[in-house]
Design a protein that fits this description.
The chain is of the alpha/beta class. Helices cover 36% and strands 28% of the residues. Helix 3 packs parallel to helix 6 and helix 6 (138-149) packs parallel to helix 7 (168-183). The structure holds adenosine-5'-triphosphate (ATP) and magnesium ion.
Length: 235
């Protein structure tokens, strides 16, 4: 399998405080990979570091063989990676349509076609395209955030807890939608608190704790691993 995203021995943090102490991971073309681990493990920080939002002071990030360590997010987006943050991932005062247009800010050509393709995938928000995003429910906002990230046809999508604080039914809808996106050929790197769902959805996973890799492997074998279950899955 071709590797689309590789983080190698990444050290990063906020100011003087180091949060990631040499974290590594890889995502293959079209693969779904999960990152699970307790609160404060550094999962969000890792996604931010990969996406150029937190500076990396050791190690490297490669996107389709190209070094993107500490590249600016807009250049990373142009190279084929999109990111949906854990919070504040839509502009509430803008309309749904404007949110999607913002998602394509680095590429204006073919905008109309890409908008229609994204609306085809998300009929529920398509019917409300002129409404302000702030009027959407939590689940619909999460759908809009996903839709926005797809506006540039990414090869890899970074998702930070897309199912957080949603109803069980909405959690299922979000995972279904992620499945559709993945079947379209986009690889997904998914951070989740909802470990069982994430392991059920992904093919491989990494368990992180205190800024380090703790376990990695096939998602099913992590689900079956008693030690991981006791420590991280509440089993
Ligand atoms: N902007 C920031 N400035 C300083 N420290 C931060 C900042 N953001 C996060 N941290 C700290 O970094 C550590 C890792 O946080 P991070 O958000 O990456 O964890 P997480 O694994 O995503 O947790 P959660 O499951 O709660 O989302 C925590 O100790 C947190 O307090
Ligand atoms: Mg987080």
């Amino acid at each position: 399998m071709t590797t689309v995203l590789q983080a190698q021995d990444v050290f990063a943090g906020y100011g003087e405080v180091e949060i990631l102490h040499g974290v590594s991971l890889a995502v293959g073309e079209g693969e779904v990979v999960a990152i699970i681990g307790p609160n404060g493990a550094g999962k969000s920080t890792l996604l931010k570091a990969i996406f150029g939002l937190v500076s990396i002071h050791g190690g490297s990030v490669q996107l389709m063989g190209q070094d993107v360590t500490n590249s600016a997010p807009d250049s990373i987006v142009r190279s084929g990676m999109s990111y949906v943050p854990q919070t504040e991932n839509v502009f509430p005062s803008l309309t749904i349509n404007e949110n999607l247009e913002m998602g394509a800010f680095v590429r204006r050509d073919g905008l109309r076609d890409r908008l229609e393709r994204v609306y085809d995938l998300f009929p529920d928000i398509a019917s409300r395209r002129g409404e302000r995003a702030g009027r959407l429910s939590g689940g619909q906002r999460q759908m809009l955030a996903l839709a926005r990230a797809l506006m540039l046809d990414p090869k890899v999508l970074l998702l930070d807890e897309p199912s957080a604080s949603l109803s069980p039914k909405m959690v299922d809808s979000i995972f279904d939608k992620c499945g559709d996106i993945n079947r379209g050929g986009t690889a997904i790197l998914l951070v989740e608190q909802n470990a069982k769902e994430a392991l059920g959805f992904s093919s491989r996973a990494y368990v992180m704790a205190v800024g380090e890799n703790r376990f990695e492997g096939e998602s099913q074998s992590i689900l079956d691993n008693e030690e991981v279950g006791k420590l991280y899955l509440g089993a």
